[in-house]
From TrEMBL:
Residues 3-91 form the Acylphosphatase-like domain. Belongs to the acylphosphatase family. GO terms for molecular function: acylphosphatase activity. It catalyses: an acyl phosphate + H2O = a carboxylate + phosphate + H(+). It comes from Oceaniferula spumae. The active site is at R18, N36. This is acylphosphatase.
Length: 91
């Protein structure tokens, strides 16, 4: 089990990006959340088995309907998330 924090840059706010990511998460065995940040990027924190997490990130960046909106994605391993159930959109 691993957890990652990812930051997405590009045209990722005001285009349904968070909702698309939440829908996509339903097809993967991951938990976590996604939210807009004040500077125009989107932050996601997620947890799951390493292969599921990596496949989910790859799907978002390379194959999703939002892939063309992403200019850059940065990700890093973080401590396992606590008290997280499902995959949600945070305010």
């Amino acid at each position: 089990m691993i957890a990652k924090r990812a930051i997405f840059e590009g045209r990722v706010q005001g285009v349904g990006f968070r909702y698309a990511v939440k829908q996509l998460a339903m097809g993967f065995d991951v938990t976590g959340w996604v939210k807009n940040l004040p500077e125009g990027t989107v932050e996601m924190q997620l947890m799951g088995e390493e292969d599921e997490v990596e496949e989910f990130l790859k799907e978002i960046v390379e194959e999703s309907a939002m892939a063309h909106n992403i200019k850059n994605m940065y990700s890093e391993k973080i401590a396992l998330l606590e008290n997280v159930k499902g995959f949600t959109i945070s305010a």
